[in-house]
Specification:
alpha/beta; D-Maltodextrin-Binding Protein, domain 2; five-stranded mixed β-sheet; 18 helices; 13 strands; 15% strand; globular
Length: 416
């Protein structure tokens, strides 16, 4: 039994009684393995498990929280040997290996029967081979978070074009600061920079063609992406030795004003606030336009899935309904919870500056399309090889030809 409630979910329980879709009384044990290991997400999943347990007196919920990065290599074994009932994972292409291996339960019948009202717009992210394999529970925007107070000090405004971005960066450098913080020790942050440079240079459709292995890494289009990126690298725009820092370890450069901006997801905002930055000091803007293409965005979507060999599928399916219901979606995605965007269209978007900006951008200014992120849109092996190359490029840009040839060889091998 669970007795720990988060502030957001406990408040919800007191005010709404956690009204969820009607379902049969549940019994037995529901085993959940979650990778929500950072402090705020961990509090949320512990609260969800506690509340779902409390709602069903004859059901015992057992929760195991594992390290988020470690889970990426553990999930297959977990789903194969003594599988849990429910697991966390990611939407779109990242589901593919586990769908093809028969490790995720097909829950298309629930979608068809209307078990997830308000989720119609995100159905595509859960669809492969014409079937649905789980539910999303949160998503969030990426973009450039910057020191608004330093921009004002330097007389800068939010750039709309890449040329304005470069010009702003030169002013920042002339002031003795770096333009961007980044911690690329664990590679994926470099993937974020490539996503935006490529989507803006060549468009969302080309970016997804590359993710599907349909175009060559040595193409002129991809080289143009790296040429634009190199303009910033050659300027000295990024903090030094970024390959030695995790993304969290690179946050102090922004907090201290040694770097003015960070291309990152909205999950960084609570950390920046906790470090002392106020909303008067911090702001956000959409990655600026380069080529004449509709703007595409990274908006990674996190998901829950039922294991195909789950022991308590009835309770697992009920948990999917519960976690996507309106009240729960509103609570867990608010500023006291994940600080992200609810996937249920009927849920309330939190009255938070950055969550509101993300909602407005994704709903009104992302006509190109929504990507899931480099290590989710590309097959796992290609993503791993690719991100190694991207980080290497940021440190040794003269190695570009070798990097692209390596990635092209990997493409030919992986996309057979």
């Amino acid at each position: 039994m669970f007795h720990k409630f988060t502030k957001a979910v406990a408040a919800l329980a007191l005010t709404t009684g956690l009204v969820t879709p009607a379902m049969a009384e549940l019994s037995g044990t529901l085993r959940i393995i979650s990778d929500m290991s950072n402090p705020a997400p961990r509090a949320i999943i512990e609260g969800l498990a506690a509340d779902f347990d409390a709602m069903h007196p004859d059901l015992t919920v057992e929760l195991e929280v594992v390290d988020r990065d470690a889970w990426k290599s553990q999930i297959r074994n977990a789903l194969t040997a003594n599988p849990p009932d429910v697991v966390n994972w990611y939407a779109a292409n990242r589901m593919g290996p586990y769908v093809r291996a028969g490790l995720f339960e097909d829950v298309s019948d629930m979608w068809e029967e209307g078990a997830f009202p308000g989720l119609e717009s995100v159905k595509g992210a859960m669809t492969m081979d014409g079937k649905q394999w789980g539910v999303p529970y949160t998503y969030y925007q990426w973009g450039i978070y910057y020191r608004e107070d330093i921009f004002k000090e330097l007389g800068l405004t939010e750039p709309a074009t890449f040329e304005e971005e470069v010009a702003n960066c030169q002013v920042v450098l002339d002031s003795g600061r770096k333009c961007y913080s980044i911690g690329s020790k664990f590679l994926w942050t470099a993937g974020g920079w490539f996503d935006y440079m490529n989507m803006r240079t060549n468009g969302f459709d080309f970016h997804m063609q590359l993710a599907r292995g349909e175009v060559e890494w040595t193409s002129d289009e991809v080289r143009a992406t790296f040429a634009n990126w190199r303009r910033l690298i050659d300027m000295g725009a990024f903090v030094d030795d970024h390959q030695t820092y995790s993304w969290q370890e690179a946050l102090p450069f922004v907090v201290k004003g040694e770097a003015t901006a960070y291309l990152i997801g909205n999950f960084a905002v609570p950390h920046l606030r906790e470090a002392g930055l106020t909303d008067d000091q911090l702001d956000f803007y959409q990655f600026p336009k380069i080529g004449d293409f509709p703007m595409g965005e990274d908006a990674p979507t996190d998901t829950f899935h039922v294991a195909s060999n789950a022991s308590n599928k009835e309770a697992a399916r009920a948990f999917l309904q519960y976690v996507t219901s309106v009240d729960v979606q509103t609570a867990i995605n608010g500023p006291d919870g994940l600080g992200q965007l609810p996937v249920n269209a009927d849920a309330s978007v939190a009255d938070d500056e950055f969550i509101q900006q993300g909602f407005e951008m994704l709903s009104g200014n992302a006509p190109g399309g929504i990507a899931q992120f480099f290590d989710r849109d590309f097959p796992a092996e290609m993503a791993s090889v690719g991100m190694e190359g991207l980080q290497e490029f940021m440190v040794f840009p003269d190695n570009l030809d070798d990097i692209l040839n390596r990635l092209e060889s990997a493409r030919k091998r992986i996309y057979k």
